[in-house]
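Entry:
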Amino acid sequence: MLIAVLIAIYIALVFGLSRLIIPYMRSGAAGLPEVLPDSLASAIQTLTHQVKTKEEFLALTYNYIGAKYRSERFNTVFKFSYLFLPLEKVWEMSGYMPCTQTNFLLSIFLVKSGFFKEEEIKKSHVPVNFVPHQYLIVRLDDKWVSVDVGEKQRGMPIGKHLKYFG
């Protein structure tokens, strides 16, 4: 009985409360910034000029952000403070970054490029190794595709995402 209560408390705290306190975890509007760091705006502009379609821009941006950042399941716990880093600090870094941060960056790239609208990007969550994992679902023409940019370095292609306890 005690174990069941502890599990219920854990699930409520980790999968419920986390959506309230962790930036970019909430469903709904991404709250994209109006003003971007100059180097971030420049990177978006550079990528935008290399392609002609939404699908090409998504692939190019996925590769760009996925080469700079990666998810590490257990670092989500050990580097919990990364969840609260401001955009300017995240953009200066590379290597490990929580899925919420990489998805926020991907959303910024997609919308600020002019190829996508905010309503064409949705957040989705699955439990992976007992913590919530976020990925995006992006509208391409008449279909929605999963985009798990933090998992790109592990070979996760556009159209796939980490699964439960993956």
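The domain at 2-26+37-154 is CATH 3.10.620 (C8orf32 fold).
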